[in-house]
């Protein structure tokens, strides 16, 4: 995927693995500002497609963070982790415990979430990174699945098993003092973080996470990670110890996941073990590949697409479909409903699977490759015209 | 009950949302709706009103979920004055008019809970935030019901619980927006006790297999209390993961435990699998301690009996309702459900249908959709003609009190739906309890005070259909 030419001013720097020149640096910042603006205005421009409601835009932002973090490990360093959901789950549990024991303020919860994700990633990464390739993937999968099973069995005093960890009226919350009537909501120094205000917390976190990922990608450290991806053996033969770098990438990635997990608890103070299941780990792999691994924006797009499908397509039922096609003559409308039905409602996985296959076959670089192809064609058309 | 007073918090929530939104200079259209209405999702002058039906369409309880959805669709039809009206004609006292609710046509949206708290809350949030439902209902898992119920509280939208049998669904605090028509584990125990005593005596050794979440825990507790009250001993109680698929690793130890009764605190596909395997392992042909080995399934349903086939023959349990009941309401419901779908409804379908009607009726009684008024109308509502005899929606804990059926797997079924035989209709008085009994003190660290589980719990497998004995091979 790293095909961009070095130093050209029109270089698509967001995805090019070249050393950032001042021109691409400026381009980076412009892109970053556009990204930030797009994220903050999501509730507006998503409303025509029916996705502008707090829960879903929160999810876009949270899974965006998760996927960006995953991409640091997978897209940049080339290590395919199949157990990233474990860090997400750990982050959630840490955050909910912070709500239960300390305070409903979200800052400690997020800090604990990130910390827990990082520490957990350090432990798992230390062991798993002794292997690479498929062995690494299997190790991470095994560890994540182990955490999932532990959450359901011996760790139920911490995780509350299948029921999920929830707030209770009698929680101590030592920093908050006694709770009033009803359960308190999460807050940021007094401002409650549910609904759209919860979304803005997530959005700001996503923007910061994106910026940090951008800095990492452009830094010498990011360069090293890319070198590891392209040929780790050669790095080792030149006397370069790659282990600390891969471990650092793994831990950073785990902290991103921990942050995402804690944000899930911030907008909805409940943690369930199913967040750690292998399907959840697989989902973030799909998001990253769908959007374009190795790119900065791709994973966020991929996360958005998958969550959109999961929440909107899955809710189409017969009634919605017949309303959609009622402009057609009766027989034709019914036929359309019958044709479309297997692909929506509980068949949304099918649609997603087809989309995924199409993208992997025709656009191996994900949606971002499609975007850059279109942009390239436009540029060629324009230069043809001017030249 | 001051514990329920959340108006101040809701206002602060809106103010908080407004402050942050304004601070970020986002356009006001985001919160426009929030100020204009005095309660969430007020239909105002709209011609229609939306209900949300949040049922498991995938997972261990998918069969129940599918039947629940059928019942909801039927209820919507009847409320809008289509079809034959079903139990709308038998509900007494009834304020329903058959022209929608308060003159507004009823529409509905659906969602998949996947039998997971996370997914259920996500789809409930979508219904409330995006689709603007005035009420939502459903769920075939108490874990989900408990999680979604606290969401209902936060959002200020009424939640009419579907099939949920855990004591904690109504026993615990902050349930103002949640209502349950279904019976609970305590009632199952109270109804089952005398029958067990009659059939199996007072000297028995019980072994529990329990679904590992809130429903399983409370059912195990309630049944244990009942059986130990009869003089039975509890040999062991083993927790099994929800949706385990294969229970052979849990059933083999039963054979050598010295127990002579197996109590399956499972539901849905879990119960179908565990019961089928228990029978295949020959438990029922065994003699232990000089007595026939018996299996008890405290919470029974016709759908499960259908799944387990002839393995249910002679097995005792309780159920909320059964289609073979001969009262007017049940007959009317079975008739219109049968005309619509070609087979009789399950107890899950029944409770969901009733819940939808009761909500609509309460709105008519209150004359408004404003939740606090609707809640007042439901609280203490005494009604009849919904298939369970005279029923009371108790105001204190929003639990319905009505008779409970003790049933037995039918060994001579006359047709494919005639799978359960009603052994006894336990009157409402026998299963009524004081509303303070089940409200355990809110445990400070909910998880920490759980009893230590017994060893020998299996590792949860990777997929839904994992090979048997994953653990033993290691």
How would you explain this protein's 3D organization?
The complex is a heterodimer of chains A (387) and B (474). Chain A is mostly helical and 387 residues long. Chain A has a domain at 54-276. Chain A contains 17 helices and 4 strands. In chain A, the strands form 2 sheets. Chain A has a two-stranded antiparallel sheet with strand order 1-4. In chain A, strands 2-3 form a two-stranded antiparallel sheet. In chain A, β2 (187-188) and β3 form a beta hairpin. Chain B folds into 2 domains: 32-183 and 325-401, Rossmann fold (3-Layer(aba) Sandwich); 186-319 and 406-431, Response regulator (Rossmann fold). Chain B has 15 helices and 17 strands. Chain B has helices at residues 7-23, 32-36, 62-79, 117-131, 142-155, 168-171, 185-200, 214-230, 248-255, 268-280, 302-308, 328-341, 347-366, 371-378, 428-431; strands spanning 48-55, 105-112, 135-138, 158-161, 178-180, 205-211, 233-240, 261-265, 287-288, 291-292, 294-299, 316-319, 382-383, 391-393, 400-401, 404-409, 420-426. In chain B, strands 7-6-8-11-12-16-17 form a 7-stranded mixed sheet, with helices on both faces. In chain B, strands 2-1-3-4-5 form a 5-stranded parallel sheet, sandwiched between helices. Chain B has a 3-stranded antiparallel sheet with strand order 13-14-15. The longest helix of chain B is centred in the C-terminal third of the chain and has 20 residues, at 347-366. The interface between A and B is large, with 62 and 68 residues.
Give a topology summary:
The complex is a heterodimer of chains A (387) and B (474).
Chain A: H1 22-40, H2 42-45, H3 54-76, H4 85-101, H5 106-128, H6 133-152, H7 156-159, E1 165-166, E2 187-188, E3 191-192, H8 195-218, H9 220-230, H10 232-237, H11 243-267, E4 270-271, H12 278-291, H13 298-311, H14 318-324, H15 330-340, H16 348-362, H17 366-386
Antiparallel strand pairs in A: 1-4, 2-3
Chain B: H1 7-23, H2 32-36, E1 48-55, H3 62-79, E2 105-112, H4 117-131, E3 135-138, H5 142-155, E4 158-161, H6 168-171, E5 178-180, H7 185-200, E6 205-211, H8 214-230, E7 233-240, H9 248-255, E8 261-265, H10 268-280, E9 287-288, E10 291-292, E11 294-299, H11 302-308, E12 316-319, H12 328-341, H13 347-366, H14 371-378, E13 382-383, E14 391-393, E15 400-401, E16 404-409, E17 420-426, H15 428-431
Parallel strand pairs in B: 1-2, 1-3, 3-4, 4-5, 6-7, 6-8, 8-11, 11-12
Antiparallel strand pairs in B: 9-10, 12-16, 13-14, 14-15, 16-17
């Amino acid at each position: 995927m790293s095909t961009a030419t070095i130093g050209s001013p029109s270089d698509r720097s967001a995805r090019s693995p070249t050393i950032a020149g001042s021109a691409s640096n400026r381009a980076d910042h412009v892109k970053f500002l556009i990204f930030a603006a797009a994220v903050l205005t999501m509730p507006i421009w998503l409303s025509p497609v029916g996705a502008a409601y707090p829960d879903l835009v929160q999810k876009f932002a949270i899974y965006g963070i998760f996927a960006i973090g995953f991409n640091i490990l997978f897209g940049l360093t080339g290590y395919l982790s199949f157990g990233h959901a474990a860090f997400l789950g750990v982050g959630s549990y840490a955050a909910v415990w912070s709500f239960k024991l300390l305070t409903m303020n979200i800052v400690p919860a997020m800090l604990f979430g990130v910390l827990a994700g990082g520490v957990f990633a350090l432990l798992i990464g230390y062991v798993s990174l002794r292997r690479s390739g498929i062995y690494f993937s299997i190790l991470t999968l095994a560890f994540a699945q182990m955490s999932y099973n532990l959450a359901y069995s011996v760790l139920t005093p911490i995780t509350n098993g299948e029921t999920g960890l929830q707030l209770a009226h009698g929680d101590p919350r030592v920093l908050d003092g006694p709770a009033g009537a009803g359960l308190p909501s999460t807050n940021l120094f007094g401002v409650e973080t549910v609904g759209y205000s919860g979304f803005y917390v997530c959005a700001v976190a996503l923007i910061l996470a994106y910026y940090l990922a951008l800095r990492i990608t452009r830094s010498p450290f990011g360069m090293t990670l890319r070198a590891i991806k392209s040929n780790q053996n050669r790095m080792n033969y030149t006397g370069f110890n790659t282990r600390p770098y891969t471990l650092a990438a793994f831990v950073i990635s785990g902290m991103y996941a921990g942050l995402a997990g804690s944000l899930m608890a911030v907008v909805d103070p409940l943690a369930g073990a199913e967040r750690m299941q292998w399907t959840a780990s697989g989902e973030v792999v799909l998001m990253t590949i769908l959007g374009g691994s190795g790119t900065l924006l791709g994973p966020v797009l991929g996360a958005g697409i998958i969550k959109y499908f999961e929440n909107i397509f899955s809710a189409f039922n017969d009634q919605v479909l017949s309303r959609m096609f009622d402009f057609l003559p009766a027989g034709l409308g019914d036929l359309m409903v019958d044709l479309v039905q297997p692909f929506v409602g509980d068949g949304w996985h099918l649609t997603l699977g087809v989309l995924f296959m199409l993208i992997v076959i025709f656009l191996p670089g994900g949606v971002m490759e499609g975007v850059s192809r279109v942009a390239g064609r436009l540029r060629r058309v324009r230069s043809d015209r001017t030249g | 009950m001051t514990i329920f007073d959340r108006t101040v918090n809701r206002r602060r929530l809106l103010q908080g949302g407004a402050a942050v939104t304004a601070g970020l200079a986002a356009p006001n259209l985001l919160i426009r709706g929030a100020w204009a209405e005095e309660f969430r999702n007020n239909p105002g002058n709209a011609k229609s009103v939306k209900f949300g039906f949040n049922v498991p369409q995938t997972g261990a309880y998918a069969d129940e979920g599918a039947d629940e959805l059928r019942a909801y669709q039927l209820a919507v039809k009847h409320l809008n004055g289509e079809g034959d009206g079903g139990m709308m004609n038998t509900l007494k006292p009834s304020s329903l008019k058959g022209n929608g609710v308060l003159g507004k046509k009823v529409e509905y949206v659906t969602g998949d809970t996947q039998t997971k708290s996370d997914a259920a809350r996500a789809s409930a949030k979508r219904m409330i935030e995006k689709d603007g439902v005035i009420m939502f209902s459903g769920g075939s898992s108490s874990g989900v019901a408990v999680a979604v119920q606290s969401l209902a509280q936060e959002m200020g939208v009424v939640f009419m619980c579907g099939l949920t049998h855990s004591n904690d669904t109504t026993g615990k605090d902050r349930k103002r927006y949640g209502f349950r028509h279904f019976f609970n584990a305590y009632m199952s125990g109270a109804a089952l006790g005398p029958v067990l005593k009659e059939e199996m005596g007072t000297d028995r050794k019980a072994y529990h297999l329990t679904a590992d979440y809130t429903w399983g825990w409370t059912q195990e507790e309630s049944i244990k209390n009942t059986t130990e009250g009869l003089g039975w001993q509890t040999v062991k109680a083993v927790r099994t993961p929800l949706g385990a698929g294969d229970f052979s690793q849990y059933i083999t130890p039963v054979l050598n435990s010295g127990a002579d009764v197996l109590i399956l605190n499972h539901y849905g596909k879990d119960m179908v699998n565990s019961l089928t395997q228990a029978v295949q392992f020959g438990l029922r042909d065994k003699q232990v301690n000089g007595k026939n080995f018996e299996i008890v399934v405290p919470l029974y349903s016709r759908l499960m009996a259908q799944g387990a086939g002839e393995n249910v023959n002679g097995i005792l349990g309780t159920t909320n309702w059964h289609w073979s009941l001969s009262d007017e309401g049940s007959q009317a419901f079975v008739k219109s459900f049968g005309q619509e779908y070609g087979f009789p409804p399950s107890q899950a379908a029944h409770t969901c249908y009733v819940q939808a009607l009761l909500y609509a009726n309460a709105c008519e009684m209150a004359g408004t959709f404003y939740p606090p008024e609707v809640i007042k109308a439901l609280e203490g509502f005494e009604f009849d003609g919904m298939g369970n005899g005279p029923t009371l929606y108790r105001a204190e804990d929003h639990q319905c009190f009505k008779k409970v059926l003790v049933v037995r797997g039918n060994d001579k079924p006359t047709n494919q739906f005639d799978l359960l035989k009603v052994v006894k209709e336990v009157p409402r008085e026998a299963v009524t309890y004081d509303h303070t009994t089940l409200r355990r003190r809110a445990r400070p660290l909910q998880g920490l005070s759980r009893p230590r589980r017994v060893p020998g719990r299996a590792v949860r497998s990777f997929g839904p259909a994992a090979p048997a004995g994953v653990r033993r091979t290691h």
